[in-house]
Each structure stands twice: as C-alpha cells, then as structure tokens.
Design brief:
Chain B: Keywords: Signal. The complex is a heterodimer of chains A (about 350) and B (about 220). Chain A has no helices and 28 strands. By secondary structure, chain A is an all-beta fold. Classes of the chains: A mainly beta (about 350), B mainly alpha (about 220).
Chain lengths: ~350, ~220
Amino acid sequence: MELLDGELELRVIQKLEGHTDRVWGLAWNPAATGVTGMLASCSGDKTVRIWQKGPSGSWDCSAVLEDTHARTVRSCAWSPSGKLLATASFDGTTAVWEHVGGEFECVATLEGHENEVKGVSWNASGSLLATCARDKTVWIWEAQPGNEFECVSVLQGHTQDVKMVQWHPFLDVLVSVSYDNSVKVWTEDGDDDWHCVQTLGEASSGHTSTVWALSFNSVGDRMVTCSDDLTLKIWDTSQNPSETSGDGCGSWSHLCTLSGYHDRTIFSVHWSREGLIVSGAADDAIRLFTESKDSLVDQPSYKMLVKKEKAHDMDVNSVQWNLKEPRLLASASDDGTIKIWELSEVSK
Amino acid sequence: MAQLSSIDSVVLLLLCPITVSPCSISSGFLLHLRHNETIASIKGDITELILKSSIVSMEQTRGDASDIFDSIVLLDETLCQEGFKDGYRDGLKTGEEEGREVGLKMGFQVGEELGFYQGCVDVWNSVIQLDPGSFSSRLQKSIQQLRDLLKKYPLLDPENEHVQEMMDAIRLKFRIISANMGVKLEYKGCPKSSKQGMEDIRSGNLRHSLLMCHKLGYWQIL
C-alpha cells in the first residue's frame, strides 16, 4: 500500500437517510460491472435499501426491498457475481433476491432456523450460502439451478447464539463467531460431512466475551475478530484446515491482540484490500488500524491510524470498505443513518 | 400350709407403711413365701428380711416407674416413628402410581412422535418408488438416514442414556428434510424447542411430586 505521508482523517462524503429504524448491516456489491458503487443496507424497519451513486455524484436510494420479511433484517450479503442478495431476518427466514436490471425480486426463501437469523455469507464461488442464528446452529445451503437452495448440513457445536458467519476468501472453509466467546472453523470431509476442525476459544488466546464479527484480509492468511471484551485479535490463517492431519489441535493460531484502543463493545470489523482494518464500536466511533513495520518485535504489531469520534449519534453496528475504491468506507448505526466516508490526508 | 400366725400378721402390718403401696403386695407375697421356713428364723431375720424385701420392692418400684415414664418420655419418638412408617409405606404406593402415570404419558408422547416421523418416511419412500425423480439424491439420502435413525431408536429400552441425543438427531434430520422439501411440516405434539420442552415436562412432574410428598410427609421417597 502506498503510504500516505501526512496525517490521515476520515471525511464524511454523505449521510444517507431513509431507514426508519436502526441500520444493522451493510454490503457493497462486488460486481465488476462498471457500477462504482452499489450499497445494500438492512434495518430494523424490516426493509433493505439499495443505494447507488447517481450521475450527479451523490448517493441515492434506488430501491427498497420490502413486504417480505416480517421482522428486522439483521444482515445482508451479495453473492460473488453481484446478481443475488441474501438477507437474513429475525423472522427466522433468509430471503434471496435477484437483481435484474434495476429491479429486485425475491426468488427464494430459506426456512429452517428455529429463531432469529443473525448472519449470512456466500462462499467464494457462490455455490454455498451459510446462515447462522440464535438457535446456536449454522446451516449450509447449496445453490441449485433455478434459484433453488438445498440444505447440505446443519452445524452444531456452539453453545450460544451465533453472531456471524464468514467464508474464507477462496477456500471452502467457514468461520463462525458466537456469544459463547469462541470462534469455530468448519470444513467439509467430503460428501456433505461438515464438522468443526478447530475452536479458537479462551484456551487458544481467544476472546473472553461475545465475539461479534470477523474479517479475512484479501489474501486469506490473516483474520481479525472483534469482541465485547474490547479487543481485536489477529489470527494466522495461512494453513489450510482441511489439510491438517486431524489430530484435533488445528492449524490456525493467535498472532496479536489489540487492546486498550476501545472502551466499549466492538460490533464490526472489516479488513480492506490495502490492509487497513476498520472497526465500529458502541462508543459511536470508527477506528482504523494498520500493521506497523516495527522491526524490533518478532511478531507483527498493529497501530491505530485514525480515530473518528462521534462518527454517529449512536452505536456503530457495521463498517464496510468499498471493494473497488479502497479509500471509501460506509458505516451504519443505531441512529438509523448510513455515512459514506473517505480516507484522506489532512490538508495542511 | 400353716396358717399365718399372729407374728406374720404383725410383720405384714409393719412392712406395709415402709414400702410403697403397689409393692406391698409383692413384699407381702415374699413374706408369704418365706412362711414355709420356721417362724423362728423369720423372727430372727426380721430386720434382714425387711431390708431385703425393701430392696427388692424398691427395685421393682423403680422398674415399674421407668416403664410408665418411658411411655410418656418416648411418646414423641414412638409416634414419630409410627408416622414415618406410615408415610413411607403410603409414599411408596403413591410414588409407584405417579411413576406409572408419568411413564405412560412419556411413553405415549415418544411413541406418537416417532410414529409420526415413521409415517412420513413411509409416504416419502412410496413416492420415491413411484417416481424416483421426485426428490433430489441428497434429499433421498436424508430420508434414508432418517429411516435408519428411527430404526435404531431403542423403543423397548427407555432407560438407555442416549435416547435424548437420538431423539434430537431425529428431530434435526426431520427439520432438514422439511426445509429441503420447502414444506412446513411440524409434529404438533412436539414442543417448539425440544430440549426446553423435555425439561419442562420433567421439572413440572418433579415439582408436582415434591408438593405431594411434602404434604403427606413422604420425604424418603425422593
């Protein structure tokens, strides 16, 4: 990453208003179809809004996906092709919408969880969809022709509410984080047989309270998790868990803990293509971290680059880097608004 | 037998005020027994005799007195023991009856639920036979897995420690199959969250039993 010489700051580009309840999640469309930015946001008002950058350069709400979910929409995720959007709701269902020429249509509804669905994630190829819920299970669905989804497996192992699931950037390895303070790694043992190959709990230098979110770096050899214990933890995920000899000890390990930077629960974390980690916390602030090239220490260490206090009026629930423009960031909050930020040097 | 001489009567009279009235008869009796010996020896040993009979009568007095007091002092304990025995016996009976009731109820519920799943599996298998293409191969495999799980369930061994796990596995497999069929199939008798439901039933009956036993004093049963 070309280092910016000067001091950095986060500048608000625009504040997006429209939702009538807290905004829980954000997802940038990964499609490389020339659209500079399409952002999906999901909210407690039971709708999902699509925002696009108009010809004037400002962001407008181009679509509202409503009348499908009966309760809060907690999380949303675009398929790698950018054509499908999966939305997870507290009503226990996950809806899959197809994006055809500006219009969105609900093409599938995945039912199966017993209660509130908290997270949804597509794998790298778009063939698998993972959902997690308060019923402590993670369901893996396979996309079939004709927008049909078939449940492949139900993963049990967590002892509490599962907050988020995320696939590895290119391996079919699934990671889930939970209220039970652990991070679990799941792989397939051939023929729909999914099981937990590793649990990163307190014994493996893991978190000591609810783990809210995780994010892989673009290469997939590092993962960051954030927690209610006020720390961010960096993990070495360079080994392929499917290839371990299965002696139970697992191949991923703890690298570094970032503590002392947050004084309230960290709800969201995202790693940019350029290696910047952004965090959104309950103190309404957004922080940026980067690896510091400190040659004195053997282990990698990270330092805080920017702290944007009062980024929102209430808890920041989600922070997401734009996948095309590495300096563009979106944040969502309990105050019902979404803000688009730009990282730039402080003009001297 | 020689008749009581005047001396005997005197001794009797003498002895009466010394000893406690209930025992005067016994001492009198003693004297009477002694009557077979010569009067002379009685006369000679009269002091010794009085003393001896006094001692004997005093011992007997003490024995009788403690018997009476025993029945007063130990009244509480005796009745307590009797009550306990009664309670225990009745508790055993009631516990058995309740156990039978709970067993019948639980057994019926388990049987009903498993029967429901078996019925579904049979219908699905018939459909597969008629039209093999109706379900995807993954779905067919799940149906066979459910059939195997149902077959393995130990219906005749309710005390098998794995029954709860097996029931959970069956319920989960059924949920996956219904999710994949896109139908909202639900066994109405089964509580929404299976584990909580079982706990409710168990704790509910336990509480009920506890209340009953507390009322009737059947502590030992539990």
